[in-house]
Design goal:
Elements: E1 2-4, H1 7-19, E2 24-29, H2 35-47, E3 50-55, H3 65-70, H4 75-84, E4 89-91, H5 95-98, H6 118-121, H7 125-140, E5 144-148, H8 152-163, E6 172-176, H9 196-201, H10 204-215, E7 219-220, H11 222-234, E8 238-246, E9 255-256, E10 262-270, E11 273-280
Helix pairs in contact: 7-8, 10-11
Bound molecules: adenosine monophosphate.
Adenosine monophosphate is lined by residues 29-30, 36-37, 39-40, 147-148, 150-151, 176, 178-179, 186-189.
Length: 282
Amino acid sequence: MKVFKKIKDIQDYLQRQKEKKLNIGFVPTMGALHQGHLSLLEACKASCDIAVVSIFVNPTQFNDKNDLEKYPRTIEKDMTLLIGADCDVLFYPEAEGIYPPGEITRIYDLQSLENLFEGAYRPGHFQGVCQVVDRLFSIVQPHTVFFGQKDYQQCMVIKRLIATTPSFHSIDMTIVPTMRESDGLAMSSRNMRLSEEEKQVAPTIYQTLLFLKEAIEAGPLTHIKKTATLKLSEKGFMVDYVGIADAYTLEPIDEWDGQKPLVALIAAFLGQVRLIDNLVIA
Ligand code: AMP
C-alpha cells in the first residue's frame, strides 16, 4: 500500500495511473476503521483499478469541540486493516494541506438538506462535510466514490454536491449498505466509546427502526413516532429525533399515502455518545 501525506505526491502518482487508463475509486473516511469502512473498500476494489482511502478527521464538520477531541484516532491499526484488505493507496493528509491558511471556502447551497434532521441538531455540519469532500474530490479526482448508507442524509448531501459542482459531474457515486454487528447495532467508530452496559442497550436503535418498518401503514405517523421515541427513552437514550421522511428528498412525512418510499431516521445519545442509524421502511 502506498501512503501519501502530501497533496502533490498523491496527485503525481494518480496522474500516472490515469495516463495508464486505470480508473480510480475513492473512499473518504475519518479513520478508526471497522468492517463498515472495509465494506466500502471491498465495493471499491470490485469495480475500480486503484482503490484510494483517505483518513482525515475533519475539524470543520464537528459542531461540538468535545466530540472532535474525543474522536478515536487509531492510525497504526487502520493501516494494518487497510493493508490486510489490499488497499492500494492511503491518503493521510495534514490539516494545513486540506485547509491552506487564508483560503476562502465556498458556501454550499444544500437547500432543505441543510436544516433537516442532522442539519438541525448539528448546525454547520454539512457545510463542513461539503468543504472537506470538495477538497478531497478535487485532489483525488476519482472516477467513482463510495459512501455508506449508515450516513443517509450525508449521501443525499454528497449527491447534491456532485450535481451542483460542474467539475464533479463525471463522478459516479455508489452507496454501500450499512454493516451491522450481529445484534443489529450499526458499526460506527463512535461505538468504541460505549461502555459494556451501553453496548448491551445500543441495539435498541435498530430494533426501534425494525418496529417502525413493521408498524408503518398509510395515514398519520405521529403515533408510531411517539411510540418509537418512548421505546428509546425507556432504555435510557436521550433522543434527538425519530423521523420518517421521503426516501429521496428527506422531506418529513406526517401523513403517509401508502405509496411513497420512506426512510426512518434516528439520532440519540447513549451517555456521552451520539448514535445515528436509519432504515428504508417502505
Ligand atoms: P466516517 O469515517 O465515519 O466518516 O465514515 C466513512 C464512510 O464510511 C462514510 O461513507 C460512512 O457512511 C461509511 N460507514 C460508516 N459506518 C458504516 C457502516 N456501519 N456500514 C457501511 N458504511 C459505513
